[in-house]
Write a structure and sequence with these properties.
Elements: E1 8-9, E2 30-32, E3 47-49, E4 57-59, E5 65-68, H1 79-89, E6 95-100, E7 105-112, E8 115-124, E9 127-131, E10 146-151, H2 159-171, E11 174-175, E12 178-187, E13 190-192, E14 195-196, E15 198-210
């Protein structure tokens, strides 16, 4: 359904989500983190995570984080380097782009650059490796909440910009004398490496901010 920029509609907005399947991660030896305390993802999503001074991690097919055994695989920050690392971690997948993950993640068993022991825990924001054609994440709209989007093909900005835009759009809305806040959001069509043309979002009434 097409909505005007910034318009809010009480609808449930769903987009197709591609299933990603990783047959086997080849060409990269890895130590699988078998800690039972590691949080498993219910559905496999190709993710990579970085922390300076520690070896890179990537998500295995079984939903556990895997340590890269290469001591030089560490501290990626440039967008192109992250894209290249995604392709190295998932050589069987058609990686076309990257996007910051929707939330920070607590990950255990990080290895120092020199190797074992792998006992450190860090909270980081992983990057999702986009496979094939980009599909925006499906957003659910609970009762009393509203869906909206801003999509400007003249704009081409990163994840942080669109996260801020979603927050501002929701904070400007009022429902039942309560200001609204962002419940969830998703970036829209890519226009470059980790750059996007807009954002869609779900605004819900905030418990702690009432409209004066």
């Amino acid at each position: 359904m097409v909505c005007s920029g910034g318009a809010l509609d009480q609808i449930e907005h769903k987009r197709p989500v591609r299933d990603f399947h990783l047959k086997e991660v080849e060409s990269m030896a890895a130590n699988v983190d078998s800690s039972k305390s590691e949080k498993r993802h219910e559905k496999f999503v190709p993710l990579v995570a970085f922390e300076c001074g520690f070896r890179n991690k990537f998500m295995g097919e079984d939903g556990t984080w895997v340590n890269d055994v290469n001591r030089y695989a560490t501290c990626q920050s440039g967008k192109l380097d992250i894209l290249k690392y995604c392709r190295k971690a998932y050589p069987k997948l058609d990686i076309t782009n990257i996007v910051e993950y929707s939330h920070e993640t607590k990950i255990g068993s990080w290895c120092r650059e020199e190797g074992k022991p792998c006992k450190w825990t860090h909270t980081v924001r992983p990057y999702q490796c986009i496979v094939g054609e980009f599909h925006s994440e499906a957003l659910q709209v609970p009762h009393g909440c509203r869906f909206g989007h801003v999509n400007d093909r003249q704009s081409c900005d990163d994840y942080s910009h669109w996260k801020d835009e979603a927050r501002k759009q929701c904070q400007s809305k009022v429902a039942e004398s309560k200001r609204m806040s962002v419940r969830s959001f998703a970036v829209l069509e890519p226009c470059g490496l980790d750059l996007f043309t807009g954002v869609e979002f779900v605004c819900c009434p905030s418990d702690d901010k009432s409209a004066g």
